Input
Amino acid sequence: MLAVYRVTASFPPDERYGLTTQLRRASASIAANLAEGCGRNGDAELARFCSIAMGSARELDYHLLLARDLKLLKATDYAELAPHTTEVKRMLTGLLQKLTADR
Output
């Protein structure tokens, strides 16, 4: 999520190795795990990496809430990012269901 990088750029310097890093890593990890899973052999491996990506999406959800509650993230930015994270989780759920139903 490029938007996560955009909004975390305005976080205070003392969060550089804290919440900024956690948000960026969680968002990047979603796509990275999907890419890695696609490079593996078979649906079972892809499903495993989709499950890991889902964990990263849930982590991103939490860190967004925390950043909002700590007033590091503007309410408008949270309102933009949270629905995107929910949509990613919905799509991952659908993909996981498809992959596990075909077994």
